[in-house]
From TrEMBL:
Organism ancestry: Bacteria, Pseudomonadati, Pseudomonadota, Betaproteobacteria, Burkholderiales
NCBIfam families: VI_chp_3
Domain of life, per lineage: Bacteria
InterPro entries the UniProt entry points to: T6SS_SciN (IPR017734), Type_VI_SciN-like_sf (IPR038706)
UniProt-recorded name of the protein: Type VI secretion system protein VasD
Signal peptide: none
A Pfam family that the UniProt record links to this protein: T6SS-SciN
């Protein structure tokens, strides 16, 4: 068993037009990420959170998380890290797993998030591997967990 202080998690976030990449493979430069009205791709701000409990995250709206995440999530938030992913590119963020963390959540702040919550995902700590990064793909306006990652959309 891995002790919490020994676990450091890396998150791969890819902006692709198909979910066929791995962190080691090339990423398509023609990605239709976060398109505007003229179908031009735009970058996406992504935040990764660690929580003791996910209830406040599940209840938070897109605007809550975009504008005031630190206050809205304060009681459960263990750590957070942010990056910007450009169309056709990849980002890797890494941070130590906090001892009390039970959930990891990923949020992609698209220009026009959908009402189905495909812009955010939650993974239970017990599903994380110490040997493999947690990988998500950004496809158009959706955040997809890669194969083998049991990521849930928060119920609202």
């Amino acid at each position: 068993m891995i002790h919490p202080r020994e676990l450091s998690v890396a998150w791969w976030i890819l902006a692709v037009d198909r979910v066929l990449c791995s962190p080691a493979s090339p990423v398509s430069l023609g990605a239709a990420l976060n398109p505007d009205d003229a179908n031009r791709p735009y970058s996406v701000a992504v935040r990764v959170y660690q929580f003791k409990d996910r209830k406040r995250f599940d209840a938070a709206s897109y605007d809550d998380l975009l504008k005031d995440d630190q206050t809205v999530l304060a009681e459960d938030l263990q750590a957070s890290i942010a990056t910007v992913v450009n169309p056709g590119a990849a980002a890797c963020v890494s941070q130590p797993m906090r001892r009390d963390t039970q959930y990891v959540a990923v949020v992609a702040f698209y220009r026009e998030p959908d009402a189905n919550g495909t812009w955010r995902r939650v993974v239970q700590r017990k599903h994380l591997s110490a040997d493999a990064p947690l990988k998500f793909d950004l496809v158009e306006n959706e955040l997809l967990a890669s194969a083998g990652v049991p990521a849930e959309r928060p119920a609202r």
